[in-house]
Design brief:
237 residues; globular; Heme Oxygenase, Chain A; mainly alpha; 12 helices; 65% helix
């Protein structure tokens, strides 16, 4: 599969996802924050649920590394991503990425200790890994990239600007968003390679398309905070 073929597949799949409103970019919270129609209390409610649900998401990266095939470039890529998630030493934030989210939660008077006690509507993500079959590896890795990493760059860019402009949050409170807007945007070339590798597996592109549609919808619900934020006091910014 050529780079051009991979790009076309990604463009066509992204168009399908967006037409069906399955992307995390279709989350209602993004539209509400960009329009300023969400209240500050609703933004805070969203932040609590989002943090509680995604704080252990890096376990997935660790599982991909543990199952990675004999591909030195891929292993370095995954190791760097996991190291950055855990330490922030490559980007220079020098702390675990989800600990950076504490700066945003602090704007709602949520301490780090209180944040660690927050619960997700779907419970905790178990830290245990699982085996990934060789024919499934690149399909699953590309599914993750297309469902989460790639659209999250735009999500964070738009949330960062809207939270700053519409709600007056300070730049130091929004580092998690500005950081991921930059870092996740850099992963596009990596996931194009993963799509090409997935194409080599039996029904690779067909499975990638189907799994990405399913995962995109699930991720959209997570990025929307499962809609829990709507129950908080409403109103303008």
């Amino acid at each position: 599969m050529t780079t051009v073929d991979a790009l076309k597949f990604i463009r066509d799949l992204d168009a399908e996802i967006r037409s069906k409103r399955l992307s995390l970019l279709d989350a209602d919270v993004l539209a509400a924050v960009e329009s300023g129609s969400a209240s500050r209390e609703q933004v805070g409610a969203w932040a609590r649920v989002f943090y509680a649900t995604t704080r252990n998401g890096r376990f997935g990266l660790g599982n991909f590394y543990a199952n990675s095939p004999d591909d030195a470039e891929l292993r370095r890529e995954l190791a760097e991503n996991l190291y950055e998630e855990e330490t922030g030493r490559i980007s220079g934030v020098n702390k675990c990425h989800m600990d950076v989210f504490f700066d945003f939660l602090a704007a709602f008077s949520v301490s780090a200790e209180e944040a660690r006690r927050l619960t997700s509507p779907i419970g905790e993500i178990p830290p245990q890994g699982r085996a990934i079959a060789a024919d499934d590896f690149y399909v699953e890795l590309a599914t993750y990239g297309l469902s989460v990493e790639t659209p999250n760059a735009e999500f964070c860019e738009r949330m960062w600007r809207a939270l700053r402009d519409n709600y007056g949050f300070r730049e130091d409170e929004l580092t998690w968003f500005s950081m991921h807007a930059a870092l996740d945007a850099d992963h596009g070339a990596q996931f194009r390679r993963h799509v090409a590798k997935a194409a080599e597996a039996p029904d690779g592109l067909g499975r990638l398309r189907r799994q990405t549609l399913v995962m995109s919808e699930a991720v959209k619900n997570v990025w929307d905070g499962f809609g829990v934020w709507r129950a908080s006091p409403g109103g303008g910014a």
